[in-house]
Design brief:
The chain contains nine helices and 16 strands. With 241 residues, it is α/β, with parallel strands linked by helices. It is globular and about 50 Å long.
Length: 241
């Protein structure tokens, strides 16, 4: 049976010895859904490659109707970083009556065990596109640009962000942040609005978070499929924002 550790134990283990390569570990990292107890996305992305775990588990439902907006975007950022480093996630999602459209904005992320709206189960993992399709929305870093691959519409769109302001806005929202903090100047406000319209940043009330997964390495299993995704992407002309 897997042992369970919390974020404090993960931090302590990361300080012992050299970084560890490979996965899985034997422990499950259990995170509460209290915003004050959640680690930052950047910290989790740094810790998990050093101390691989069998899974990351949210102790309670991610209740987007009840949690503070700051907590919601932090949970989304953590799910995205787990996908980025290949850590399996066990979690459940609760939505309000007017939040059902969030599923199509988030289902490139690891699938929850179930989705409930007002306590009624409405969806399972099989309803999430990431369960059946790998690499729906991700980005990779280049010199002075970001390359985003978006396959959520069924086609493969490559979006190149090469404007320094747009790159800064995209990057600052990775951990989740206040919308006012992200849009302090007219240039940043325009860039943020473009990224929201393009589905690359999610605005949740007065908070926001970057959605594409950072594809740090390409999983071997996908490479062995014969490069289907790469071939599809090469047929699409880049779009610049």
């Amino acid at each position: 049976m897997n042992t369970s550790i919390d974020i404090h134990e993960l931090r302590a283990r990361s300080e012992i010895g050299a970084p560890t390569k490979g996965r899985p570990g034997s422990a499950a990292l259990v995170l509460g859904t209290d915003g004050a107890a959640l680690p930052g996305a950047a910290e989790l992305a740094e810790l998990l490659p050093r101390v691989p775990v069998a899974e990351v588990r949210l102790a309670g439902p991610a209740d987007f109707a009840d949690h503070p907006e700051r907590t919601v975007v932090r949970i989304i950022a953590l799910l995205r970083e787990c996908a980025s480093v290949g850590a399996p996630v066990t979690w459940s999602l609760a939505l309000g009556a007017d939040q059902f459209d969030l599923i199509r904005q988030l289902d490139h992320l690891p699938a929850p065990t179930e989705v409930t709206v007002l306590g009624r189960r409405v969806a399972t993992a099989d309803d999430w596109r990431s369960t059946h399709t790998f690499g729906l929305l991700y980005f990779r870093k280049g010199p002075d640009f970001l390359s985003v691959i978006d396959r959520r519409s069924g086609r493969t769109d490559r979006i190149v962000l090469d404007d320094p302001v747009a790159i800064d806005v995209f990057t600052r929202a990775l951990g989740g942040c206040g919308w006012a903090d992200l849009t302090a100047t007219p240039e940043r406000s325009a860039a943020a609005a473009d990224l929201v319209r393009g589905g690359l940043i999610l605005r949740f009330g007065d908070q926001c978070v970057t959605l594409p997964v950072h594809m740090r390495t390409w999983p071997l299993g996908v490479v062995l499929l014969g490069g289907t995704l790469a071939a599809a992407g090469s047929r699409e002309a880049p779009e610049r924002l």
